Amino acid sequence: MAGTNNQLLFGPGLIAVTPFNGWGGVTPLDSVTPVRVAVLQSGSCEIDIKLTELYGMNVFPVAQGASTGTAKGKIKTASLCGWLLNALLFSMTTAPPAGSKVVINELHSIPASTPYTVTIASTTPVVDLGVFFTSSVTGGLSLQLLSVATPTVTGTYSAVYATSTMTYTFVAADAGKQVAISYALAPATNPIVTYSMVNPVSGFPPKFSMQFVIPYQGLTTRFTFPNCAISKLSFPSKINGFVEAEYDWSADTGGVEAGVLFTMDTLQ
Q1: Could you say which of 1.10.287, 1.10.3470, 3.30.450, 2.30.110 is the CATH number of the domain covering 14-49+66-94+195-265?
Q2: Which residues on adjacent β-strands are paired with residue 144?
Q3: CA 131 to CA 168: how far, in whole Å?
Q4: What is each CA distance from 155 to 46, 158, 173, in whole angstroms?
Q5: Rounded to the nearest 5 degrees, what angle is found at the Cα of 211, between the Cα atoms of 209 and 213?
C-alpha cells in the first residue's frame, strides 16, 4: 500500500556504534558496548551506485545496468573521545589510569640567588614540554629556552627527574626572570588512560555496527548498518573554534554476498 505520511528530519540526530571485531577479526579488546557519539555535529550517509549505460545511435542511453556500489558517510563530533577512537579504529588494550596530564605554561620565577632551580613534585615521571621566557608586562610568551645537558649561557636550561622531583636548572644570567613551563605527568589519581595504536597486520579492519537515528516531532527515522569500518580520521585544530573530529566510514554486507547492507525504520 502506498504511504501517505511524510517524516521530517531535523538536527544532527544520534549515532551509536557497537564494536564487534578488532584488527584481524579478533574479539575487541574493550567490552562490546554501544558507544554514543557525544556532541554530534553532523552525520551523513551516501549511497553511490555505479551505472553503466548502453548507447545506440541516439543521444540518450537505451538501457542502464547497475555494476558496483558503495555505502559510506561521515561522522563529525566536537568530542574527541578515546573510548570511541579505540572502538572504531585502534581496537587496542587500554592501559590503567597512567596517561599523561598536560600542564601548559605554568608560571615560575627563576630564583634571584643560587640554586637557580625550579622544582615540580610528582610521584610519577615528568616529561618536559618546553620552557619560555615571559613578558613581565603582558605575561605573554617571548623567547623559548634551549634544553641542554648542562646549562652554561643565558637562554639554556636542563630538566632532570629524580626521587619524585622534576628539577629545572637555569643559569645565573637569567636569575629573577619569569618563565612558563609546560610538562606532562601521570598523577596517582588520574582518570586519563593510554591508548596505544600499534602497526597491525594488513587485512581485516576493526568492524562495528552503527545506529543513525534522527528524531523530530516525537517520531524517529533509524538507519541500521550492521557492518561498518573506518577509513579515515581527522581532527584539525583552528583559531576561534572547537576541534571537531571527523570519521569517514563505509559499510559492507559482512562477507555474505546477499547479506544486508542496511535497514531503515520510518513512516510508511
Answers
A1: 2.30.110
A2: 132
A3: 9
A4: 55, 11, 9
A5: 170
Decide: 221 and 43 in contact? Cβ < 8 Å: no
Q: What is the DSSP letter of 95?
A: P
Lowest pLDDT segment from 86-95, 169-178, 196-205, 247-256: 86-95
Question: What does the alpha-carbon distance between residue 217 and residue 48 come to, in Å, rounded to a whole number?
Answer: 30
What secondary structure, in 3-state letters, does 26-91 show?
A: CCCCCCCCCEECCCEEEEEEEEEEEEEEECCCCCCCCEEEEEEEEEEEEEEECCCCHHHHHHHHHC
Q: Of 254, 184, 220, 237, which is closest to residue 16 (Cα–Cα)?
A: 220
The pTM for the full model equals: 0.72
How far is it between the farthest Cα atoms of the chain?
Answer: 94
What are the residue boundaries of the structural domains of the chain, listed by start?
14-49+66-94+195-265, 101-185
Question: pLDDT, tens digit, for every residue of 113-147?
Answer: 999 999 998 887 888 999 999 976 666 788 899 99
Secondary structure class of 25 (helix, strand, coil): helix
Pull the grid cell for residue 7: 517524516
For 134-180, what is the HEC assignment?
ECCCCCCEEEECEECCCCCCCCEEEEEEECCEEEEECCHHHCCCEEE
